[in-house]
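Hi P.,

Sorry for the delay on this. The queue was packed all week, but I finally got your sequence through. Input first:
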Amino acid sequence: MFRILMQSLRTGVITEPQPASNDEALEHLGIELRRLIDKRFGRSLAIRQVDAGSCNGCELEIHALNNAYYDVERFGVHFVASPRHADALLVTGPVSRHMETALRRTWRATPSPKLVIAAGGCACDGGEFGVSYASCGAVENVIPVDAKIPGCPPSPLQLLQGLLAVLQVERKG
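Then the structure:
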């Protein structure tokens, strides 16, 4: 035990440096997002996230939106467990053949008017999987898509920018 303690004291602390802070960009995006959500919905934006066959890279970034740093709920964005309570679907991954029916059912269960957002390169264009015997490819090959957020995976800030963009387009439309 003493040997391990001495070795850790000799080695010291080995960690990565703290990433550059995006606090100002995050706050600006969040305030604008909150304003548009209040104007359009008069309450919060409820999102149902659907993994249609992804590698989980996008899900990790989406989960980061709910951590203490990003805390997206303070801007009025909530993730819900049921499509019946959702205003928007956030779909990740290329749609696998096994998830095609489930995605269509989820889309039909979401009350209109609804937004569908494809998040990540695979959801936007099928990624490296494309269309095959096991994959339908992009989300738009299965259900109508209102917005695409590219990236592999898109960062939490890119996800917030994508949400902001879709609400701005809807506001003009």
